[in-house]
Amino acid sequence: MATRSLPILLLALLGLLIANLMFGAVSIPFKSILEGFQVGNANYFTVHEYRFPRTILAMLVGAMMALAGALVQGVIRNPLASPDVLGVSHGAGLAAVFYMTFFPDADIRWLPAVALIGSLIAALMLWWLCGQHSSTIKLAITGVALAALYASCIDFLMLVKPLEINNALLWLTGSLWGRGWNQLSMLLPWLLLIPFALWLAKPLNLIHLGDDSAISLGIKANKLRLASLAIAVGLTASCVAICGPIGFLGLVAPHLTRKLVGGRHQILLPSTMLVGAILLLLADLVARTIDPPIELPAGIMTAIIGAPYFLWLLLRTK
Amino acid sequence: MKRLLSIALSTLLLSSSLSVQAVSSTQDSIKNSVEDSKGTFSIDYVPKRIVVLELSFVDALAAVGVSPVGIADDKDPERILKEIRKEIGDWTSVGTRSQPSLETISALKPDLIIADISRHEGVYADLQKIAPTLILPSRRATYEENLHATAIIGKAIGKDKEMQARLKKHAQIMADFAKQLPEGKEVQFGVARDDALFLHTADSYAGGVIRALGLKNANTGRSDDAYRQTSLEQFLAVNPDYFIVGNYVTPSIVDKWKNEPLWSVLKAAKNHHIYSVNPNTWSRCRGIISAETMGQDLIKVFNANK
């Protein structure tokens, strides 16, 4: 199963990478794309300064969010789990909205840092409330409750300061608009988390047998959970800080991948990164080309693609 | 993947150093320096292909007969005043004001971009890679700030003299309007959506225009915001003599309120001093031509009332 899916996924990824470079408000033929990488070419800005970094960013963010989702689903052992149940993206959202509404004149360049701090505080808050030894269900429920609390604070801020709603809503939907080399370089250090996540694949398989079996097979279940969730928090926080909380990606991508390649984490984790990258590339491509020159936020597209798929999945598993 | 990225990054560095040299080697034939929201902006040619990312900048260009090649008009040409549309002719839409399409802007090959500090600060660096970018306040700008920004635009596009003359004429027109309007009457403008009324306070653009026309702003209480969402009861506390409403939808919340008993207690309702105007002109456009249109609207309102 896996051997058949992987080449197809890789081909799809390659095709979407090229399509993202070719299409947009202005279509550029494939040959001109290569020329567009040369300084001084007519398409230099569009290809090299704009589409290329944005495409790479979409690929990385998609992959990282999907990986975070697979890790969380792996340790919480609940199909509805996603990085959202950790309250991380809502924490980032609250920090970002607070910054935008109360400091409308402040430099927008600090926004990723503010959002990052918000999400890390949210993660620490969850850890402080649950501690290291509580059950995964307690963790998930506390996380969801905290997320709801942050969401209501966001709503309150937006109601109190309706003037800033537009900017805040735009950020909260998650978008790749205007993100380029700067944002890409901010994301690069966080890529270091990926090998650590992949290294956890084998023990994650064992934890699926249940805590008792895993412990008897020599797995330190609590430490593994903490490590996986910490990595998931890092991956999600870095992505959300840059693009805003792009919905459904961390939930749908691992599900879709499990359908394609099965549940062995050695294959699941790398494949889910491919699927996540494909989904976000597709979402951003559609968002940019559906009604040019209007640019929709990619987060709307992932929700449009993700929500019905998820419903279908739920109905079918019944 | 990483190698590709490092190659790409190094070409980026190389290219930016090359472009810096290119800029510094140009000679100063004509040089216009102005202060924009990010510091000193200099340009040494008269821009021919201008892209503007807010509607107030279109107004400023049209005031001195300059046509932009691209406008962030939310893909709706009607957002530009009819008078201005006639003046500037055809343009290409570059998408929404909140997220303009940088590809479309780049494809237009502009030699000047005018952006809004409130909306476009995040992409200022990218815009500068496309063309020299003048960044000024538009959203949330007051009437006075708008006049100041308009003067800066005039200087940056090499039409300083024309713009100063136009601004003088504008002041004259507004003073003439003020003479035709009763002095010191209390006028409040608000935009009505389906579910909310937003009063434009003394700190808003419309509030400034109302004062410039010799009229008075109603006291809206708290003065920390340019726009204030108001319930019917709060609106009764404001209780302006004249109420000018721009309905973004019909029926708006104001139409619904008209059936409420509280509404009939309003001074403006009792004296039939409620008038509707084009919300686009009054709220979105913000510029000297729209301010003059707003003045004409008010004269119509007060003449109908004689």
UniProtKB/TrEMBL annotation, chain A:
CDD domains: TM_ABC_iron-siderophores_like. The chain crosses the membrane at residues 51-72, 84-104, 110-130, 137-160, 180-201, 226-247, 267-287, 294-315. GO terms for cellular component: plasma membrane. GO terms for molecular function: transmembrane transporter activity. InterPro entries: ABC_BtuC-like, ABC_transptr_permease_BtuC. The keyword Transport applies. GO terms for biological process: siderophore-iron import into cell. It is found in: Cell membrane. SUPFAM superfamilies: ABC transporter involved in vitamin B12 uptake, BtuC. Gene3D superfamilies: ABC transporter involved in vitamin B12 uptake, BtuC. It is a multi-pass membrane protein. Its main location: membrane. Keywords: Cell membrane, Membrane, Transmembrane, Transmembrane helix, Transport. Belongs to the binding-protein-dependent transport system permease family. FecCD subfamily. This is Iron complex transport system permease protein. It comes from Marinomonas polaris DSM 16579.
From TrEMBL, chain B:
Pfam families: Peripla_BP_2. NCBIfam families: PRK11411.1. Gene3D superfamilies: Nitrogenase molybdenum iron protein domain. InterPro entries: ABC_transptr_periplasmic_BD (IPR002491), Bact_iron-sidero_bind (IPR051313). It comes from the Bacteria. Keywords: Ion transport, Iron, Iron transport, Signal, Transport. GO terms for biological process: iron coordination entity transport. PROSITE patterns: FE_B12_PBP. Residues 1-22 form the signal peptide. Residues 49-306 form the Fe/B12 periplasmic-binding domain. This is Iron complex transport system substrate-binding protein. The keyword Disulfide bond does not apply. Belongs to the bacterial solute-binding protein 8 family. Its main location: other. GO terms for cellular component: outer membrane-bounded periplasmic space. It is found in: Cell envelope.
